[in-house]
Amino acid sequence: MYSMAEISPFEEWSESEAVLLDNDDLNLLKKINDNKSNARIEIIPEDNQYKLRATSWVGTIKTHNHIITIKPKIGNLNFFKMLEYSENLDDIRLLDEVKITSGRSLVDFMAKLFVESVDNILQEGIYKNYNILEEEISTIRGKLLVAKNVRKPRFLQEKFWCECDELGPDILENQILLYCSKILSELVINDSIKENLDQIQHIFEKEGVSEYVPDLYHLDMIHYQRFNEHYEKILKLCEFILRSTWYGDFSKKDIVPVYGFLYNMNTLFQNFVTKSVQEEFHQFRIKREPSKKKLLQEIPFKEKNTKQVSAKVLKPDIVMCDKKTGKIRLVIDTKYKKDDPTANDFYQSVAYSLAFDCPVLLLFPQLNQRKRGDFELVDELDKSAPIFSRTIDLSESDSDYICVMKSRIKNIIDTILQI
To answer: How far is CA 398 from CA 83, 199, 231, 395, 405, in A?
Structure first.
């Protein structure tokens, strides 16, 4: 058994150095890749070692013996600008160009931002609220729990089960902060940040905050008012952290194992394009992943007890509708991939074109120098809606990165709408 080692960071769509992986490492990586159609990382045997090939996921994976860091191909700074814009994180001071440029990984940067945000909370004061407390005491306090007292046999010393409200810090807001500090501490590489996270845990635990495994819906249960409004920004960051964390077998009783902090670039690309289109084309009603449309109707089998597999319904990424007429003018399908589009990509576009009777835009990031061609349906289909295939270069170093990207997306769509 060898000690925990950091594999040299490598970019998405590229390969790592050759490393030794034991059975525990391999089993964990295979478990992370439970969905073969959307593998987070590919494992390539090479002699007695293995190379790891990144796909469209960036972030950190922690195996039993290794820390694996996958960097975004567009660069940390551009990635965080897109992330801040797409995830509406602009109000939590996400961007610090010096720290981002010098940062090694997504999880380290997020952990550093988390530490700074918690420090602000501690300076302003840990929020306390009333909790319902049930306890057996010698004097009656609050509400007497009759049912529990009836079941309790009486001996020499009389005690009573009571229920009362107690002001304290062991509330959901602080439990979420404690939990996020623990999962980040499991994944960060920087020793200084890890030490800061451990110190945060010590402070909250010393105050009496208990361990609790929150779900994302718990964040919707928090209502902000004057006394806890200083928690709003950091809990927004916690929501992103929880959504990006890959857990082990889930259990409500214990803190679950944390195996990765990963973000899907497909999701980022789709969110970025969708928000850009919404802001640049006010004359259209923009629908993101609208209601599924069924193109095929099942013909039941005549044979009895025969089960038929249902055909998938259509669900495009973005649909642009004319506000006045309601007519669909363009369907946009984002495809974050390095390689050329496959036949499935184009046949999916054909289905969109037939179903919605409008042009279709396949939008790719420009991750190589290959240009994409346009297509039109053959005469036999009796449709004139073309299929456009376009790329957008995301590797811009301009300080006004978001405006430049939005302008490029707008120019692509304007050109198509004028055809």
So the answer is: 16, 38, 33, 9, 10
Contact 163, 142 (CB under 8 A): yes
Which tokens is 121 given?
Answer: 């909370």
| The pair of three-digit structure tokens given for residue 21, joined into one six-digit string | 């992986």
Q: Distances from the Cα of 285 to the Cαs of 138, 174, 202, in angstroms?
A: 66, 40, 50
Total number of residues shown for the chain = 419
pLDDT digits over 129-151, tens only?
Answer: 877 777 776 676 767 666 777 66
List the one residue out of 389, 388, 408, 390 whose CA is nearest residue 398. 408
Long-range contacts of 188-197 (CB under 8 A, 24+ apart): 188/107, 188/108, 188/111, 189/6, 189/60, 189/67, 189/69, 189/104, 189/105, 189/107, 189/108, 190/104, 190/108, 190/111, 190/112, 193/108, 193/111, 193/112, 193/115, 196/115, 197/111, 197/114, 197/115
pTM as predicted: 0.80
Listing DSSP states for 361-386 in one string gives EEEEE--SSPPPPPB---GGG-----
- Contact assessment for residue 41 and residue 52, using Cβ atoms and an 8 Å cutoff: yes
pLDDT digits (tens, 9 = 90+) for 44-76: 998 889 999 998 899 988 888 888 999 998 888
36 DSSP 8-state letter = G
- Phi/psi-derived region of residue 341, left when phi > 0, alpha when psi is between -120 and 50, beta in every other case: beta
* 383-403 tens-digit pLDDT: 567 888 888 988 877 778 999
SS3 107: helix
**CA angle, 265 as apex, 261 and 271 as ends, to 5°?**
115
Share of the chain above pLDDT 90, in %: 29
- Angstrom distance (rounded) from CA 211 to CA 256: 11
Phi and psi (nearest 5°) for 15?
A: -110, 150
Residues 6+ away with beta carbon under 8 Å from 393: 365, 366, 408
Q: Where are the beta strands (DSSP E) in 265-342?
A: 284-288, 318-322, 328-334
Instruction: Name the most confidently modeled range: 23-37, 135-149, 172-186, 288-302.
Output: 172-186
Query: Any alpha helices (H) in 91-170, and if so which ranges?
Result: 97-102, 106-124, 146-151
Residue 43 carries which side chain, given as an amino acid letter? Answer: I
Give 176-226 as a DSSP string: HHHHHHHHHHHH---HHHHHHHHHHHHHHHHHTPPP----HHHHHT----T
Residue 2 has pLDDT above 50, yes or no: no
**Lookup result for tokens 């996400």:** 94
First to last CA, the chain: 63
